[in-house]
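Internal QA ticket QA-208
Title: Verify multi-chain structure generation after dependency bump
Assignee: T.L.

Test input:
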Amino acid sequence: MKPIHLNLAARPFRDYRPVYAAVIVMALLTAFLALNNVDTLLKYQTETKTTRADIARLEEQTADEQRNADTLAQRLRGVDLKLLASQTEFANAQLAERAFSWSELLDRLERVLPANVRLQSISPTFDKDGLVHLGMTCIGKTGDGLSATLNNFNGDPHFANAFPQSDAQQQGEYRFTLGVDYRPSIARRVE
Amino acid sequence: MIWREKRILLIVLGVLLLANTIFFFTYRVQYVNRLQDLDLKQEQTKARLEQAHRARITAEQQLAAYKKVQSDLQVLYTKNWATPMERLTALIDEVKKLAAASHLEPPSYAFSSSETKNPTRGSVGATAVGIAFTVQGTYEEARRLINLLELSEQFVIIDGISLAGSGAATDKTLTLNIRLKTLFRDTRTAAPTANKQL
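Actual output:
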């Protein structure tokens, strides 16, 4: 008897189980990672909200500061510095001249001159470095008036480079001239 | 064969899985680094703000300093120096008054006027006026006059002093030559005005 082969299937038989298994695994993995990623993203947004807002605020402030600095720099460029410096230098020189104290000079001379020496004339000249050179004529009662005066000038820190020019006896008096540098408390500048 | 039949589904799932995996490894795993980067950016932004703030403050201070100088110059020129029309007679009266207060009466006064010489001062616009006189008196009177001139409200500079004795030891009378100097704002040029942009 010849066997009868009956095939009643509407479609060819396929074993899809490996495919479905792969799809399920991939879908589960994707879902797990997606959930995790969404959670991470939300967490990041929440945790960094303050910091990001702070950064935005700081950047805005920086931009404001830079704008203001630029405006000021522009105004500074409009200043005629050369003219201002020239005017200031001139004014300062005049104020320094005004500030020079003749009373202080005379006070110091009174202290430094020996008792037996009196000042007959004084003529100052002003150096650019603030030093004042004094040309003086003095009259001493005794012959050692000049050396005593020089010693006193040398011992006073406000005076320097005392140097005699002449010393002569006239009618019982000793007339001598000398030059000395004087450094005032406020230097007088000259041009 | 069966894989080919379901390839679209597999490709879609594969792409989604790949995208999520990439996101996971670049975002989730590097999460702490991202937070640190953000903190670092915050610090850098703060530093930039501090720098910009300092630059602005420096510019402000510089501008304020220039304004102050301009203002001081303005006061010096317009009030202290003023113009000869505004101050010359007051100055002469003041000198005479101070001489009288010191019991010294100058027999004569000499006046001179000269424009400031420095070429850069062409724009400064000041005129120097000199007053010279000779008085005779004691050393104390001369000191008093010098002191009064130094304390005067008027902008007067003692430009030079020459003190001479009579020569006789018993005679206390001194001859005092004084040269005074003052400055006036030049009427032909305006006082230093603040820059319009200041």
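Spot checks passed. Helices of chain A lie at 17-47, 49-77, 81-99, 102-112, 145-155.
Status: verified.
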